[in-house]
Amino acid sequence: MQNINSAADLKKAIIQLELDRTVQWEFLQEQVCNTYESMKPVNLIKSSLIDLASSPYLKNKVFALVLGSLNKFISKHTSKEKSANPLKNFFNNLLQVGVTNFIVNPIAFNLVKGFLMQSLFKKTK
User: Fold this and answer.
1) DSSP 35-86
2) Measuring CA to CA, which residue among 114, 116, 76, 69 is closest to residue 95?
3) How far apart are CA 120 and CA 114, in angstroms?
4) Distance between CA atoms of 100 and 96, rounded to whole angstroms?
5) Tens of pLDDT, residues 94-109
6) Torsion over CA of 57, 61, 64 and 66, rounded to 10 degrees?
7) pTM (2 d.p.)
């Protein structure tokens, strides 16, 4: 603060302090409203779900679960279809081994997972 030497300076300082108080009061009211809105149960659940959905750990787990389910489906599908055609049985077994090795091989799995994660969950501008 400046040294106040006259009545005019005192009035200017009072007016300036009142303006500052008004601005701070409006800011405080806005902050209270924002805090109140963010603490509503609906908004708490919504923000928690957004945080959960943006978690890379969860995305990786869901992706692994989907690929594991796909592997089980292909394994069951190919094992049910034992036909009289030995060539078809050979290709069914080859497909089953290929999918299983793809899931087990961390390098190929991570490569494809990374590509799919980038393409599926990329941010749009």
Assistant:
1) HHHHTSHHHHHHHHHHHHHT-HHHHHHHHHHHHHHHHHHHHHHHHH---S-H
2) 76
3) 10
4) 6
5) 777 777 776 666 677 6
6) -130
7) 0.40
